[in-house]
Design brief:
With 300 residues, the protein is α/β, with parallel strands linked by helices.
């Protein structure tokens, strides 16, 4: 599948794992199928919502294999790669490429701070290791070493680095990125940004956990933005942003998993030592989902 397909709404999938550490492949496959039926444009596995930092390698492999099989070529599947070393990142990217993913979304995990040259080398090395499009993932709230604007500009000249997902809360930074890459790289928003604003300034979509529990509403927002119907887009954006704000109060994976449980998906709780969603959090997520029509008023 061509990287030109990378646009629109890519839900960041949860990773359903039972108490014995087994991936609930049936639940994940059903979720993928329902999201595709709801009109999403792609699926992203092993992001922050997918608890990549809490899964061992075999669990990660099983999650990605399940998503690729469930998608069955209907939408592109991006697999998350996160490592502290170049060698491990290349190994994981290569394994996912063999599993027939459509692209890689890569983030740098760093214990010690890494200088710009090292950050650039990490992402360039992953791009060289696979014959797949690569999307950069920057999340400065959780990183010791972030992608600077000069590094992003240089990486945009690597042929198979096709996009960046920015999970900062600085939408002005997205505009700076768009100016620096001059069309060589697509820009995706995350939950921290207001998607309608990102689309207005030149973004091509968003990759975010909340789209797992509000896929139809997210797709409707994307379509309004694509059609440049900004009045309708903001009418759709406001209730979705209130949902995002509710999530900002709690652990993201706990919120998305809690919302999916309310919708009838047995995805379980976040992996320990993360805490599950509190009773107050469940009530808040339920109310937010009901407000946007993503849960029947009698749901629960």
């Amino acid at each position: 599948m061509s990287d030109s397909a990378f646009h629109g709404v890519f839900p960041y999938l949860v990773s359903p794992v039972d108490a014995d550490g087994r991936v609930r492949t049936d639940v994940l496959a059903r979720l993928c199928d329902d999201l595709i039926a709801a009109g999403v444009h792609g699926l992203a596995a092993l992001g922050s919502t997918g608890e990549f930092a809490y899964l061992d390698w075999e669990q990660q492999r099983e999650v990605v294999a399940t998503v690729v099989e469930a998608a069955a070529g209907r939408v592109p599947v991006l697999a998350g790669v996160a490592a502290t070393t170049i060698a491990e990142a290349q190994r994981r990217a290569g394994a996912f490429a063999q599993m027939r993913c459509d692209g890689i979304i890569a983030i740098l995990e760093a214990y010690f701070p890494i200088a710009d040259d090292g950050v650039q080398a990490y992402f360039e090395s992953i791009a060289r290791a696979v014959d797949l499009p690569l999307v950069l993932y920057t999340n400065p709230n959780f990183q010791r070493s972030d992608l600077s604007l000069p590094v992003i500009e240089r990486l945009s000249r690597v042929p198979n680095i096709v996009g960046i997902k920015d999970a900062s809360s600085n939408t002005g930074r997205l505009l700076s990125i768009l100016d620096r890459v001059e069309g060589r790289m697509q820009v995706f928003a995350a939950s921290a940004h207001i998607p309608a604003c990102v689309m207005l300034i030149g973004g091509v979509g968003w990759m975010a956990g909340p789209a797992c529990i509000a896929p139809r509403q997210s797709v409707a927002l994307y379509e309004a933005c694509r059609d440049r119907d900004w009045t309708r887009a903001m009418d759709l954006q406001r209730p979705l942003w209130r949902l995002n704000q509710a999530f900002a109060k709690y652990n993201l994976a706990a919120c998305i998993k809690g919302g999916l449980e309310l919708q009838g998906y047995a995805v379980g709780a976040p992996l320990p030592p993360q805490a599950p969603l509190s009773p107050a959090g469940v009530d808040e997520v339920r109310a937010a989902l009901q407000a946007i029509g993503a849960l029947p008023n009698h749901g629960g």
